[in-house]
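Changelog-adjacent note: as of this version, every example in the card shows the full chain rather than a window. The one below runs 97 residues end to end.
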Amino acid sequence: MSVSSTQAYVLPTETKLLSNYPNPFNAATIISFSLPNKNTVTVEVFNIIAQKIKTLLNSNALTAGTHRIDWDGKNEQGNNVSTGIYFYRLSINDYHY
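Full-length structure tokens:
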């Protein structure tokens, strides 16, 4: 998993969580989102029965801009997850997307 950020000359005016790509995915997927302000951000992945599979990001001070997380399809223990349906959640302070 890797996290990368890009800051453009024009910062986003609203928080946006984009669809992952590719979807469906086999071995890896990219999750992108935009922040208008510096914030506390968490991104987590859950399985279809709402069990947390992995925390992809837990940042106390993520800068404004567009961010991208590459998820390698592994759980917290570093094992590949099985084929299935997964959900991801972007949490900013106490608000969830």
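Structural remarks: The beta strands are 2-6, 16-17, 29-35, 39-47, 52-62, 65-71, 86-92, 95-96.
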